[in-house]
Amino acid sequence: MRPILEIADLDIAIAGRRVVRDLSLSIAPGETMALIGESGSGKSMTAAAVMGLLPRGARIAEHSRLRFDGVPLSPEDEVAMRPLRGRAMSMVFQDPMSCLNPFMVVAGQIDEALQRLGAGNGGQRRARMLELLGLVELPDPAVLARRYPHELSGGQQQRVMLAMALAAEPRLLIADEPTSALDATVQAEILGLLKSLQRKLGNALLFITHDLAAAAQLAHRIVVMRAGRVVEYGPAAVVLGDPREEYTRKLVSTRRMLAAPPPGRPEARAVDPALRIEGLVHDYPARRLFGRPFRSLHGVSLTIAPGETLGILGESGSGKSTLARLAIGLARSGAGEIALFGTSIAQRARLDRALRRRCQIIFQNPYGALNPRLTIEAAMREPLELLGLSGRDDRVRIEAALVDVGLGGEHLARYPHQLSGGQRQRVCIARALLSDPELLICDEIVSALDATVQMQVIAMLKALQAKRGFAMMFVGHDIEIVRWVSDRIAVMHRGRIVEQGPAAAIVTAPQAPYTQMLMAATLGSVAWPVPAGTSKGCDFECPIPGIEPMSGGGANARSLRPIKDEDVLSHATAAAVDGEDAA
Amino acid sequence: MTRIVAVLASLLRGLLQAALIVMLTFFLCRVMPGDVVDVLGLEGGLTAEQQAAMRHSLGLDRPLPLQFADWVGHALTGDFGRSIRFDRPVGEMLGAALPVTAKLAALSFCLGVALALLLAIAATARPSRWLDAAIDLVNTWSIAVPTFCAGVAAILVFSIWLGWLPVIGGLLVPVLVVGLDNAGQIVKPLGEELREAVLLPHVRTARAKGLSPWRTAFAHVLPAAMPVVLALSGLVLGGLVAGSLTMEVLFALPGLGSLTLNAIHGRDYPIILAAVTLIAVALVAINTIVDMLHRLIDPRVS
Lengths: 583, 302
Known about the structure:
The complex is a heterodimer.
Chain A: E1 5-14, E2 17-27, E3 32-36, H1 43-51, E4 58-60, E5 65-68, E6 71-72, H2 78-81, E7 89-92, H3 96-99, H4 106-117, H5 122-135, H6 141-145, H7 154-165, E8 172-176, H8 184-201, E9 204-209, H9 212-218, E10 221-226, E11 229-235, H10 236-241, H11 246-252, E12 275-284, E13 294-304, E14 309-313, H12 320-327, E15 335-340, E16 343-344, H13 353-358, E17 359-362, H14 366-369, H15 376-386, H16 394-404, H17 421-433, E18 439-443, H18 451-468, E19 471-476, H19 479-485, E20 488-493, E21 496-502, H20 503-508, H21 513-523, H22 565-568, H23 570-578
Parallel strand pairs in A: 3-9, 3-10, 7-8, 8-9, 14-19, 14-20, 17-18, 18-19
Antiparallel strand pairs in A: 1-2, 1-4, 1-5, 5-6, 10-11, 12-13, 12-15, 15-16, 20-21
Helix pairs in contact in A: 4-5, 4-7, 5-7, 7-8, 15-16, 15-17, 16-17, 17-18, 18-23
Chain B: H1 2-31, H2 36-44, H3 48-58, H4 64-76, H5 90-125, H6 129-144, H7 147-161, H8 172-197, H9 201-208, H10 213-250, H11 256-265, H12 269-297
């Protein structure tokens, strides 16, 4: 059978840097091909090239050949590509919130895609639009069609994107990380939908992801990419179950680092608790004239000892980020007491320099946390100047701080957009640690990163903590990661701490009903596609014997099963030491 | 509901500002050296006694706050008094002048925004050196050449050298001059905004849908840039009041600007106050409309 998409020797260069090298693959009609890799591996660039949506400045090498259903593609020719887009092939993107036009109702956006097909009058198009919304299993299409994107949930938004992409019944659907911006349960739904739609419509699917479990669930064949090259290529079960390449093995076993505790706790530098919060209440002001304010924190109390790590675990909307911001004086509390190193800050408008120096915060989104118009050096110089720590040796100190986080002097002159997400977060960590703080507040700092990068970043963070002895408040939603990083965990739910205790106890023997529910939900989705077979690198047990890679369940497989320590750490440490690929 | 309350609140704020402006104008008028009677006295050769009698009959010798309260009381009922100099109802005089200014301002505003939008959109949809050069030219022109210079030059070229247009009374040249000036003020930030807007993820989605460049520009890029367009438009409209004043004087258009300027020279208080009130209220109305449009365009603003 003639392949629907055939790529031979694809080479893409941006400003002279080759981001994709010698990539060749072919997709048969109706087949699902997963393109797996970390950020910066070139997987999204490959997809953009197929659609002809490469960013300005990206060039495809002369010798590269792309064929769509046997016909040569010329991705750099806008006029030639436009007739294909939205007809023969279409695409779904990562972040549905920003990928839908915020100024247009759902109906209008889907109608555009239908108008473009040039078929039918207004009434027919409307009927088809409702049919499409039904196809992606959205309840009450007629009501939903009148809504604006911001009035939909993330899952609904992604379904609308899918409906739009499927308007033309394309022969090839490209899905670029379609679920990574969504909550775990919603991810599973969308993946299931992609699969069932493909069965119904028979389109080929190029599925780009960093989530191996998702790839295992959907893909017939898998291509593993790294630094623009194909590392491994083959049927999904074989690649994930019995990886031949070292890199793939590392990918498959990346979360196993979390099974063993991190290196020992640092020595305390002080006596006063780093942070003490008592009866903290916070309200978001009413948005309407007579509306009631939204209470995001209902009397939260906690203490963080010097050198200790307290994990704050909760779902989105539980108030954990608000807590983090309040703890460092970035927002005003309604009532209650906050003491940083014994100094009360609850009633202060802002922290003075001395306190600011001793506590720092790192945010979730490293893309937003760095000013795109400042070089890394300038961005890191700023806190030194603001905190009155600036001196002659600034450059040396900044470079040393970058080396601490696995970067180097060559990054000083770069701009944030020239770094990968992981590298950016490292810069943020280095920047926060410049003033040698005694308390570091980490607000979901790894949730925007690839899985292997997550492991590298938290391993690095723990190593730095062991060396420097700062206390941490580690806010997160990923149970395993929070457990690994933290000495104690506080579980938050709807603005309250429902349970607080030693990390191991919270995870293995939760007392509060909510925590039990949370743990059970996570345990329910265990399934790493690891075979019982004994290939050379498979030095750990299969999590649950008899689970087959293809049928393997959840999108977000997270094993909480206790794994023996000695099983593990070889990869983890390797990953942490390796650092990322220099982009 | 929330939207209506928010719009009303901004309208109220604006009216309060307008009231402050009017009050300030009232007292500033009286701080100016010489009053209307001095001017008339100089022109008509009145004696000191005649002048004093005139001041008394006009009520100008009463305490200022009282005069102001009086004026406000009448203004609220729509009575702006009579021009001291021309002895005609102020309302009637403003009514004659307003359409001229409104036409001039509206036409030059439309020309300016249309020209700026056209250039910026064209440069974004089909980037070319020529368009960039044209944008730079218009922008530099409006920064470097004040409208009164451009106006004089336009009179020289069109009316005297080419003999195409009447020097006095024609709207075309002033509209061209002010419109070009307006376009130059906003075309650059507009272009920048559009250039950033084309990189937005939802614009990429539009391209992935295979929409034409023009459709993408008008339905997806432009709405994203619209808040900035509106903000810039409000700015330009505010500047138009001053801009049309010079044009009216230069081209002898009997508009609000000429009227106000002459009234200031003659210390004709009722006209000054009425004109300022009118302009202030108009600006408040424009701001409110801009605010409402912003809310209308962007559904996320509550």
